[in-house]
Structure formats: structure tokens, C-alpha cells
Amino acid sequence: MSNSLVEKIKQITANNHSSVVQNRRWLHQHPELSFEEIHTSQFIQNRLNELGIEFTKGIVKTGIVAFIKGRNPEKKTIALRADMDALPILEENDISYKSQNDGVMHACGHDVHSASLLGVAEVLSQLTQEFEGTLKLIFQPGEEKLPGGASLMIKEGVLENPTPQAILGQHVFPDLPAGKVGFRSGMYMASCDELYLTVKGKGGHAALPHKFTDTVLIACEIISSLQQIVSRKARPDIPSVLSFGKINSTGGATNIIPDEVKIEGTFRTMNEEWRTEAHEAMVELAQGIAKSMGGTCEFEVRKGYPFLKNDETLTGRAKEAAIQYIGKENVVELDLRMTGEDFSYYTQSLPGCFYRLGTGDSSGLHTPTFNVDESSLELGVGLMSWIAINLLNEQ
Fold this sequence. Notes:
The protein has helices at 3-29, 38-51, 110-125, 149-155, 215-233, 272-292, 312-326, 343-349, 376-393, and strands spanning 54-59, 63-69, 77-83, 134-140, 166-173, 181-183, 186-189, 191-200, 204-205, 240-249, 256-257, 260-269, 296-302, 308-310, 331-333, 352-358. With 395 residues, it is α/β, with parallel strands linked by helices. It folds into 2 domains: 3-189 and 307-393, Zn peptidases (Aminopeptidase, 3-Layer(aba) Sandwich); 191-302, Alpha-Beta Plaits (2-Layer Sandwich). α3 packs across α9 (376-393). The longest helix has 27 residues, at 3-29.
């Protein structure tokens, strides 16, 4: 494909950069939680209407699917996805476009994702004679909350009429400087399950341990012992993480042992057979410990997103397109990550490529001071446009 088309895309993205930044800042100022993206969805619909782009709304309530048709629109379909939801975090950034919704913040960059995909829509709507097939743009709710907006949109037919041959997702990455992107073929991100334990027993006065069941001690023993599941039962070639982030009790005090202690955690891995075995082993071990110490343990495993595996052929093509667009020195190989993403549901259904957009040095994702170098949006828009055109025009 000619270098002239690359330059044309770069010129359009440069001209449109300020409007993409404005869209991102509006979205950042008006964040909404998972499955509550009412105003976000309306904002995106308004922008698509301004561009004259056909779309369907109301998928999983706030989701949107837009269509851009090139020559021979039925020849091939490529899907591009952006998530829309924010997190329950109070923003601490001192910026003019700080969140106006107290306790809600775009701390994972979904404002960048949605603004970038709107930018792609504007670019590709001007280049319909440069590609064959159809672009399917998916604006997705609820990535941050089980069961994941991707799984629900798939159930409502987002991958049908027409069915894409492949799907691309782009996610901000503060570990990379603006101007760089990262790819990884094959296994990339872990499955992620939520664990909810309730330890029960007969509480009492802390000074009279012979008269009560020490639910706090049982909870501590369970948390400590469950680490054996990863350290002693997992195969060394299967990455696994087990972490507990919350423990509390109802009615406990310095001298009061409560009747009940609740524990919450997460389990992540990259092998489905081991995932199932680990669930069973954790439940059996926790309940056995509680029983041996005179209590009981209710153990709920909320099965979350599957592992994310990038299709090797598709990712190779996308990476090569990125090298053509910004040079080999700006395209890096990503490491495995134990974080999770509901884009994985798409990759269970069709070839997918989930890659990372460098957004500059910042505090980490999901922190109250997360922000991005907004120059990265120009590359985010241009590169996704270029990759999409390449994939559509492949024979």
C-alpha cells in the first residue's frame, strides 16, 4: 500500500487532533460508571450524527455500533472496539478538565479509547474510496464490571450482521512514552476471577477464647494457607496470582471477636484446566481449615473474564502495519500481564489483536492521579485507521 495513503492519514489526524482532544476532555470531565454511561453514549451518538455515520444504539442499554462502508462493503468486515466506562475513584489531578462527577474518574483511559475511536471514524469516513469492505466500530459499556460489557454485547449480537473477520482493541499504557506502541502475539493477559469468603462461628469476649470460635484467626489462617494453591500446586509454566484485597468483620472490636468475617480477593491465571482445578482446591482447603478450627466458610467464586490471547497472524499483520506507520524503533514487544480485560471475550469468538498505546510517564492505571500525554491521541487515531485499512485491503 502506498506511502501516500500513510501521509494522507497522518495529515488528517494532525488536522483533527484538537477536536479529538476536546472530545477526550469532555469525556474525562463527565465520567460514568459501568453500565451507567448514559451521557457518554449520547455524546458519542451526537458526534457520529455530525459525521453522518450510520449507527445502532441501545445495545446493552448504552452500547453503540457504527458502520463505515468502503468499496464492495460486503467483501470483508473488520471490527474496532473502544470501552466507555469509568471507575469509582475520586480524581486528584489539578487540571482544567478534572472530573465533575465526585468519586468517578476515567482512571483507566477509556476516555482516550472512545475519543480515539471517534477520531478513527472521522478519518475513515473521509477515505471510503481507499478501502474495501466495512468497518464496524463498537463503543462498549461496562468493561470494568463483571460480567463485562463485551460478553453482554456478544449475547445481543454485536458480532453478527455482519460478522467481522477480525477485531482490534487499543488500550493506553503509561509504561510506554507517547509516540510508541506495543504488541504481543499469543497469550497476553490473564483470566480474572473474584473470590468472596465468609467465615462464620460463635463470637465472644476476646479475653475468653475458650468460649468462642475465633473467626478472625480462622480468616487469617485461610488467607495464609491459600497461597499454597499457587506456590505448591500450580505448574511452573502456568502463571498464576492469588491476592486478597479486603477483609472486614461485623461487630468486631479490640476485645470482641465477631461472629462473621468477610474476605475478598482475586485469582488470575492463563490455563483453563488449571483455573478450574484451582477453584476446587481453594474451596476445599478454606472449608477444611474453617471446620478444623470450629467454624465454617462460605466460598463463592465469581468466574470473570477468560484469558486474552492475541491471534498470531492478525497481530503480526497489525505490528507490521505499525512499523510502516511509525518505524520499527517505536514498536515494542510487550511482556505477559496478569491483569485482565473483557476484550478477551471477543478473542474467544474471532481473531483479535489487543495492543497498547504509549501515553507517557504517569501514575499507574486505576490511580487518582492517572493522566495521559494528549499528543498520544494523534498516534492512537492514525495508527488504528492505518491498521484497519491494511486489514480490509488484504487479499
